[in-house]
Fold this protein.
Amino acid sequence: MNPEFPTIPAVGPAQLHDAPCRLEGRDKVRGQAAYLDDFHHPAAGGPLDVAVAVTSTQATGRVLAIDAAAALAMPGVRLVVTHENAPRLHQVTSLTGTEIGGLLPLQDDQLHYYGQCLALVVADTLAHARAAAQVQVSYSAPVPDAAFTLAQGQARAKDAKKVGGGDPGQVQIGHPAAAYAAAPQQVDLTFTTSPHHHHALEPGAVLAHWTTEGGLTVQLPTQFSYGDALILGQAFGFGLRERLPGFAAEALGISGFNRKVRVISPLMGGSFGGKNGNTYLLLAPLAAKLTGRPVRLALTRAQTFSLMPFRGETQQRVRLGADANGRLQALLHDAVAATGAGGEFVEPVGELTAKLYAVPNILVHHQAAVLDTNAPGWMRAPGSCVGQFAVESALDALAHQLGLDPLELRLRNYADREPDTGKEWSSKSLTQCYQAAAERIGWAGRDPRIGAMREDGRLVGYGMATSMYLTKQMPATARVTLHPDGRAVVQTAAHEMGQGMITALTQIGAEALGLPLAAVHLDWGDTLLPYGGMSVGSTTTLTNGAAILEAAELVKKALFKRVVADKASPLHGLSAQALTVVDGRITAPDGTNEAVGAALARHPTDLLSKEATTGRTFGRSDYGRAAFGAQFVKVSVDPDTRHVQVERLVGAFAAGRIINPLTVRSQLLGGLVWGIGHALLEESHIDPRTGRWMNDNLAEALVPTHADVADIEAIIIEEDDTRGHPLGVKGLAEIGSVGTAAAIANALFHATGQRLTSLPLRIDKLLVGR
Ligand code: MOS
């Protein structure tokens, strides 16, 4: 292998063996973990009503009439809520740009998309509500020029000022057009990617309860409990500010947060970006307000297609200009992303483009086209997942054109500094990732000629791609309290979507306090707790971990101050600055020590409790900060049917310090599997005549199953990123999928000579281009 590759230790079986298992894992496997649909609000004081949503069967035009008489006559039905009798809501701010910020439910007769909520049938049981949910709706004629696909809505594309979470939609470095025109080697490819949905096993669900004091308690699986509480507070007129100037102000303004609205987020059955700020958040509270009783609403699987977000359709043109040696002179990335009714979110397709390779001239140009659908939103590795498919496919085409090894092409354009800012990287172990994954898959042993490899009668190909995920840190607050029994309680309103948050944050708390894991308890998922930020963008471990680390330092300081002043302590009179906590014992440099519990027990009524807020600058840094990785893949293709099998998929990733190798490995494997689905299967079909999501069920919405996932491996490269942040943690969740689709498409090209530029890489597309 290339001798330039330095060696960095990878996380191996020993670390996996020693890592703590998920703290909630035992409950989960025994069926004792409660998800929203499993529980009743303890304060509800009686049985719960159940609501079922009735959705539109037309995308545009107006509702002329809703006939609820038949439903109201059915057994157990309490109420049918429509725009005619629903309480009026105030406009809300969705901090994550979701549909609800522009479109409140059940407020008027205007149709915006197929599957829009038009009525809620509220009954005493789910069976009664379902039976009665046959409300008759009549519509005006639909508008003639509706657009449900980018092909139909091409003319609506407009330059996007902001994309994703507020990043600039337009980036220009140097003179990209001129540099491209002058480059001796050019690649110009256009890519399309289909819409697809999250398919979290647990659909969106919400339970609302108006308290006798006029407060509102809402329980729902969400990635942003405080954000949802702000929406509820605004919508129902709890006197919160109408407009909030951004996340930072919101985090800092938390003292003014209206405590009459409480959001509790239980364990989630997956979310992947799809669970926060959604329309259904307001539906159960609307119904409960009218009935005066607690109401629970769970979407049907079909309703998750229109009442939850999804990844919108994209079109991308990538132009590469290079010299004869493959050194990139120009990289131009033009993207059009579909958006929908109400939402502000634009898929940040080119988020990574100006940060990937050492290119002097770069253009990133985003456009958005508003279609007559529900709004697309955040979905696992927003932007980078689809953007990297295009850019890394184009690089593969350039490597082929130059007769260069695709890996060698990446190394020739390796970015030693962050290309768009010129900043040094806080750390970057991408060469180590390339090396580890290439060795593991046997890259050097392949026959690089196109279509030259066969095994058992099938065409075989190898492909690779670069992976990357920007490291971000969100504002968050944590409170750490030491109790007289020597145990610590860590409180932050973080969210457990299945990613392992509870375990990772408890570990960080235990380590920061010098206590065993069993002595630390994490309180999470409730807006009665300190602001926990939003669990998006692979940021939770860093975001909440940073706040916990700081609060733990403050509480230890207070503890040390107390013991050195305490005549009953063996540490009395020593220097507080020199103390540490090791294995639950406060320890001086000379070895004198006392158990934390013993020191605390002498002051049982005087709790030590400290709060810290971190991330106010969103992790702004003098360094470029990102996690890096690479996927290498081997595919086989049936020469006749063009069936594609991913035979092996190896990803190697470096993301700073790994808090828990077990949960991280699971995240990465999940990302790799997601990448296989993204490449080969996942696609939500919309009817171009009606705007209806057609495969709105888990039978026809294809995702990888065991037969689609052969041999996958996630290699974790350890790296020191304490210069990026004292915790040393980067984001490591979504990166598994970034680049995977390109690696598979590139392997397909190697196997067949077919360069497919449209995701998913379906058999019918391969048969046409043969
Ligand atoms: Mo993730 S799509 O940022 O929840």
About this structure: The pocket of dioxothiomolybdenum(VI) ion is lined by residues 223, 273, 378-380, 382, 536-537 (CB under 6 Å).
